[in-house]
Amino acid sequence: LFPKNDAFPFDHAGEGETSLMLALAPDTVDMDRIAEGNPWWTETAPRATAAKGEAGVQIALTHLRQVLGLA
To answer: What are the C-alpha distances in Å from 67 to residues 1, 8, 13, 62?
Structure first.
């Protein structure tokens, strides 16, 4: 999805994935529940924003275009 060594913080339920969800499906994210249960993998999620998610979408699309030879 993302090029190797990219700076986008792709992670499960953390800043990167939550940002992508805020950009792509904001109705599925409840930021008020992020700290609920406080699992370690969500510790970076409060830093998530839709703007970061949009940037991640563009990184992923650019990378996929290159991989598929469409760029």
So the answer is: 10, 18, 26, 9
Predicted TM-score (pTM) of the model is 0.87
Neighbouring CB atoms inside 10 A of 40's CB total 8
Higher pLDDT, 19 or 42: 19
Nearest CA-CA partner of 58 in 13, 31, 20:
20
Structure-block tokens of residue 13: 């339920």
Rounded to the nearest 10 degrees, what angle do helices 15-24 and 50-67 cross at?
90
User: What does the alpha-carbon distance between residue 51 and residue 71 come to, in Å, rounded to a whole number?
Assistant: 24
Helix (H/G/I), strand (E/B), else coil: 1: coil
Q: Which of 46, 61, 49 is nearest to 20 (CA)?
A: 49
Q: What is the dihedral of CA 59, 64, 69, 71, to 10 degrees?
A: -30
